[in-house]
Amino acid sequence: MAELAVVARRYMASYALFNQALADRLGLHPTDLQCLNLLTLEPGPVTTGRIAELTGLTTGSATRLVDRLERAGYVVRERDAGDRRVVLVAPVPERTAEVARVWERVGGGWFALFADLDDRELALFVEHMRRTTEYGAEQAARLRAGEPASGGGGRYGGSAGRVRAGGIVRGGVSFQGYS
After folding, report:
1. Does pLDDT of 150 surpass 70?
2. How many angstroms separate the Cα of 2 from the Cα of each of 7, 21, 109, 156, 160?
3. Of 58, 104, 151, 175, which has the most beta carbons under 10 Å away?
4. pLDDT confidence bin for 169, thresholds 50/70/90
5. In degrees to the nearest 10, what's the CA dihedral of 122, 168, 161, 33?
């Protein structure tokens, strides 16, 4: 568990730095890039309120994020055909294709990292990613609500968040003295 905790922290830091570099390359803020990523996973255009839900931002912050993406040409605002009072945000296909091309150039080897794994091993990675995505979203919501993050609560509960000075207790990580 100690090794997993260290590797996970390095993985998260590495991905955050990669996301920053990719966002810089595209002239976007890292949060804006990830919002665009989430928008491309939605089945269609969404409201700014839905963007707030997806990102955990307030509706005001989500509106400013959409403003930035719109100015950069990555999204457009359009009226809902069923209810003209509702404004939807849609990715611009040509611009998201541009992001995909940049991603393919810099991250295209990602799939090769898993090419030698069998279906069972791949399923383990998929489950890990689903679980950590859910857990991370729960903890982000707790932090935004002013609650302390904890290993308890949520689907995965347990003592994963308990930390002892300078050490690890059942997966909890102390930030003191880590390398």
Report:
1. no
2. 9, 29, 28, 18, 11
3. 151
4. very low
5. -50
Find all residues with CB under 8 Å of 50, minimum gap 6, and list them. 42
- Using DSSP's 3-state secondary structure scheme, residue 90 falls into strand
Phi first, then psi, for residue 75 (nearest 5°) are -140, 160
CA distance 50 to 69: 15
Token pair listed for 63: 């509106």
Per DSSP bridges, beta strands 75-79 and 167-168 are unpaired
When pLDDT is cut at 50, 70 and 90, the band that residue 120 belongs to is very high
Identify the CA nearest to 69 among candidates 37, 111, 101.
37
